[in-house]
Please model this.
Amino acid sequence: MARSIVALSLYGCFAAAMAVAPLPAVSAEFDDASAKKFFNDRGCNACHGPDEQRIGPPYKVVSIRYAAEPLADRVESLSMKIRHGGSGAWGIVPMPSNPRVTPQEAEAIVRWILKLRESKPAATND
Model:
């Protein structure tokens, strides 16, 4: 019985630590090409184009709109919107959640989009 209590306590501490632990940085394997592939494969391109308004805002406009926020805040808030959806930021059409996107994929997509403020985006439907 005492062993079970100790084991459950350790498991609870581990689970709590994992819940608040920061996400690891996006690994080198998630380069811009990988992020673009995630963007297309996860269906983001159905609503977001590079320069044109579709259902959602163009992703280059997203990169410009959030340029003034600190990078860590942008990555965190936009990654959460990709995974959990959102509403009110871009009009009346809500962004649906996309639970198929992992936290690491969402971060890679966000970092790729944020870089586009500096350059012209390439078409996403290669």
User: Anything to note?
Assistant: The chain has a mean pLDDT of 77. The longest helix spans residues 2-20.
